[in-house]
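Researcher: Here's my situation. A collaborator sent me these components and asked whether they could plausibly form a single complex. I don't have experimental data yet, so a predicted model of the whole assembly would be a useful starting point for our discussion.
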Amino acid sequence: MHIVVCIKQVPDSAQIRVHPVTNTIMRQGVPTIINPYDLYSLEEALRLRDQLGGKVTVLTMGPPMADQALRKALSIGADAAVLLSDRFFAGSDTLATSFALASAIAKLGESEPVDMVFCGKQTIDGDTAQVGPGIAKRLELNQLTYVEKIRAVDLQSRKITAERRAEGGVQVLTTALPCMVTMLEHTNTVRRGTMADMLRAGRTEITTWNAAAAGITEIGLCGLKGSPTVVKKVFAPQPRKEKAKQIEAGENGDLATATLAALFAADARLEETLFRQTGA
Amino acid sequence: MSEAKPAAAPSRGKMKAELSDHFKTYKDVWVFVELERGQVHPVSWELMGEGRKLADKLGVELAGVVMGTSGDGCDAAVAAAYEYGADKVYTIQDPLLADYRNETYTKGLTELVNTYKPEILLLGATNLGRDLAGSVATTLKTGLTADCTALAIDDDRSLGATRPTFGGSLLCTIYTLNVRPQMATIRPRVMAMPDRQPGRSGGIILHPLGMAEENVVTKVLDFIADASKDDAHLAYADVVVAGGMGLGKPDNFKLVKDLAAVLGAEYGGSRPLVQKGWIDGARQIGQTGKTIRPRLYIAAGISGAIQHRVGVEGADQILAINTDPNAPIFDFAHQGIVGDALTVLPALTEAFRRHLARAQAAE
């Protein structure tokens, strides 16, 4: 079984700082990580490979330095890695990104047919959750998003059964391979690679493809040109006109009583709401 | 949403390409009405309220799209769509739509768009809405902006969709240049629920699905309802208490739960708490978690990054407790206590408990 896992190198969002004067992102020195949601999908792919045999290829699109994310994925246990990197991809929105990644997956499938594609639920920098479904649609893969559990994959009948998170419950779905899956977070425990994996990761050559190598001939569908959406402006939110009113302890020195008084004074119906919902 | 460096990209504000004659024929604003197992997700009516404003600004009609199997809540959803502001409803009713499946719903919605040509299509940013929107937008090769927090119509009639970017540290406004429809998803509770106008009616356009079950690859074997609806009420709660990293350690989260229990409130936390595993992901409040619009929101030990702010800004009253007087949360909270959540929370819990008990005794 050949599984392709799409990952993205993202800035560690906890460490992003905005310049207080210019409102621009201070990227210098911000460490990068594999998008955390991708790791649950990578883990699930590795489990299926361990169970059923085959190969896991990790794929990313990004600048040359994104090879660090691939190297990390190899050290966790992936078998092969492909970096899709070309200046033509710069400025891609989700539609152009899904085109480039789908093209690369199709190219990978020429030598080893792809049975499953895993993507992260969403990224922590873009948060769109659109690239996975975009890839699925372009490659006509059956789509299973927000999966909590893969119950079974049967290579004989080429069927997969999975539990998918829906509103108020889970849908148990069965569909045919090839399919695209996104895993929900905390649905598995991401392994630490073995020492052997780490040594292998150091030795494994990362395949780097530009657009042409990935079989892309329609450059107009890549990057800014292939992106129907544009970001017109980036800005910091307006502060509220007034800052929060500071509540101080009242005459008797009791801050909590003063707080209750302030909250009830600002909202005449708050007390009634509390009575209603506490049954008081 | 541009995945790569929007800030570094050149301003393309002047590059709004002229629409082709084909796309100029696209008009009206559509809202996808999310109907699942007979129930409409409230986000659909929130979007109907927002769609009404956009349609009025453009001088076009507002339409709801209702897909499902006839009888299973479809008629009620159609009637409600009018009452929440739709001028007309496009509906596909077919037994194949009894459960949500990407395959059938993508086919149906894509075909409706290609046939009746809306200029704007809004969907709720739920699991269902996101699963469907990504597939439909890719099929139509059009732009899709996820998780918008504000929508506006420009002078040239195009849709400006604003959303947080860079992990929620800034906002950006995104346009779909020369393709229609302009698609956007919006999270539950980001937009206010409009007033329902009983008896309001409109037109209906029936459309066939044109699929046979034997040609649908994906089958629904079962639906397992959640045993506990533990988090189900967070987004729609009247009072919410939440904690952040200022609580110091996981055990202290109990102080948040204690206050919530006394108030009959729901509780939640900021994104770092979820990432550290202190609380369940379903309890996360903010851009990537739940958006809330309670009457009262109490935030303890939360600094107030934009990604949190956009999730709570709809609250009528925000009380922030933070040791740092310069924490960004005091820029958008209404009331503030500069102090340690670890001492303030128990004091508030006790004061509310006394107050509510006294009221009960007085009855």
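Model: Some features of this prediction you could bring to your collaborator: The helical segments of chain A are 36-52, 67-76, 94-111, 131-139, 195-203, 255-266, 270-278. The mean pLDDT of chain A is 91.
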